[in-house]
Amino acid sequence: MKKINLITSLSPQKQYEIRRWFWVTIFLLICTVAMGVYFVFPQVIMYCSLQKDIARLRQQTKQYGTLTGAQGTLQKEHDELHLRETKINARAQQKKNPHQHITEIVQACGDGVLLQAIRFNKKEVEMTILCPTAEHAQVFVKRLLASPHFSHVKITSLQSEEQSKQLRCIIKGNVIF
Description:
With 177 residues, the chain is of the alpha+beta class. Helix content is 58%, strand content 21%. It has a domain at 99-175: Gyrase A, domain 2. Strands 1-2-4-3 form a 4-stranded antiparallel β-sheet, with helices on one face. α3 packs antiparallel against α4. The longest helix has 49 residues, at 12-60.
């Protein structure tokens, strides 16, 4: 082991070298820290802010799976309803749609007339009604003849019903499309 003499001081040349080495080391350390702060610190700040954003977005999208599943279900239902609506609209716009004719028949029924059956066969229609008197049947036929949807409307059968004490009337006519 080498003995160190702490009482005697170092030569001025050695002191200068140690001082220079100390300051150069401090300068290089400060430069390294400054470069680290300049290049690394913004990235660390960005990393922290991104972590906060990720945590916030995860919190917001916690139920995203259930919401997308519900949205998928709603989208399928919407598509099905749109398809049905398209079919209904196509049917309603069709020339041979009996809806207008049935509406006219129901409106022509009036008081006391009970509609039992309607049978459409191409351009012919046959209706069975129950009415209290023959005059009610005549009024029903006149209302249908006044409609633009029917022509040649005639009473073909008029029979009395014992049970209900009314008349069963069979009416035939042509349908105008």
